[in-house]
Amino acid sequence: MPRPEKHVFVCTQNRPQGHPRGSCAASGCAEVMNEFMNEIQSRNLFEKIGLTNTGCMGPCTLGPSVLVYPEGLMYGKVKKEDVKKIIDEHLLGGTPVASLVVPAEVW
C-alpha cells in the first residue's frame, strides 16, 4: 500500500464527566471519526487519506480535535457536518478550512 498523501488524526480521548480538562468524547468525537471513516470508504480514498484515532492532543476545550499531516495543521470544535468540507477543501483541494483552524497560540 502506498503512503497516503494526507494523514488525519482524530482525538478520541474519553475522560469521566466533570473532569476539569474535559474530553473530545464529550464533544462528539465518535461521530467525527465515524464520518471520516464513512467518507473515506464511500469515496475510495484509502490510498490518498490515512486515518488514525488518537488519545489527547492537548487542547481539550477545543475538541473534537483533528490534526492533519504533513502540514501539522490542527482543527478544533470539528462537527460531523464539517468532515466533508475538510475532505473536499483541504485534503483533496489543498486549501485548509480557515474557520476551523485552531489559533496559532494553541497549536
What's the CATH first level? Alpha Beta
Which strand order does the major sheet show?
2-1-3-4
* Helix vs. strand class: alpha+beta
Please outline the major beta sheet: 4 strands, mixed
Which band does the percent of strand residues land in?
Answer: 15-25%
* Overall outline: globular
Give the tally of β-strands.
Answer: 4
CATH homology superfamily: Glutaredoxin
Number of discrete helical segments: 2
Short account of what is shown:
The protein is 22% helix and 18% strand.
Written account of the structure:
The protein is of the alpha+beta class and about 110 residues long. It has one domain: Glutaredoxin, CATH 3.40.30.10. The chain is about 20% helix and about 20% strand. It is built from 2 helices and 4 strands. The longest helix is centred in the N-terminal third of the chain and has 14 residues. The mean pLDDT is about 95.
Describe this protein with a few key phrases.
107 residues; alpha+beta; Glutaredoxin; four-stranded mixed beta sheet; 2 helices; globular
Write the layout of secondary structure elements.
Layout lengths: L5 E6 L17 H14 L6 E6 L11 E4 L3 E3 L7 H10 L15
Parallel strand pairs: 1-2
Antiparallel strand pairs: 1-3, 3-4
